[in-house]
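Entries read chain and fold; for instance:
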Amino acid sequence: MIAGTLAQSSRYASLSPRFGAAFEFLRNLPADLPPGRHDIAGDDCFALVQAYTTKPLAEGKFEAHRNYIDIQFVQSGRETLLWSPLTGLAETKPYDSEKDYALFAAPANPTPLRLRAGEFTIFYPEDAHAPCLELDGPCAVRKVVIKVRV
């Protein structure tokens, strides 16, 4: 797991051959890009633009992916994401290969990540995470999740 600001993103471009294009997309992101999927490099790298209201921490569901790395960028609003190493977590919903995710029981002591507009986190397949949660009450969030094929 990595967390940072978009201004710092160039230092992470070398971690994946697709990160450069992903962060370039975010740096040029229009404020009014409609929700939904936007291809960057076909199925190897694409953006999912989302708009939602954050949920209480107790409603968090831990997920993990096998085929994609998530770059989760908060374009506007604020939210908490919970993180935990995947090792040792009990699977509660089996892996769905079409949607590339499985759900896991919440760990005893997850690490909270508090993101505000302009900040991102990178979750690798070994990172369980629970997104879309309240920071200090419900908040309207506009977020872009870039899916980067491993």
